Amino acid sequence: MRHILLLSSLLAAAACLSPVTTLSRQRVALQVTNAARITDELRAQLQAQGATLVKPGEHPDLLLRLSDERFERRLLSVLPESGKAAEYELQYSVQLETETGQRSIQVIQDFTYGEEPGLAKRGEEELLREDLLRRAAYLVLLYAAPPDPN
To answer: Most CB within 10 Å of its CB: which of 44, 70, 109, 118?
Structure first.
């Protein structure tokens, strides 16, 4: 599990280092309906890219409409000797709409449940949920950014 968390963290860090340069100096507005969890992460990534956040009515260069976010947790396997859960899949999805169209953003992560104390595992699951939000926010920016003219 620690390897998965480390790999996820490294991938997230690499994603943050890969600039979505076409958003720098852009005026970007967020219009959010039932997608509150991704909003803070998306704002942070937009600001890190050099975008200026504006309200939808302030004539943005790019309007991102986000809706219907959902976390799902699915049982993948059980321990045969005890019947306890051994592996789960976490999935986060959100709907993205821009002036160029609509897209469903989905990120999925498997994680194992061993014999460790339940509170520690819940903490790991919460870290994975935060990582899924980071990855989804990056994908939103990747899909929504206008093509680089260079």
So the answer is: 109
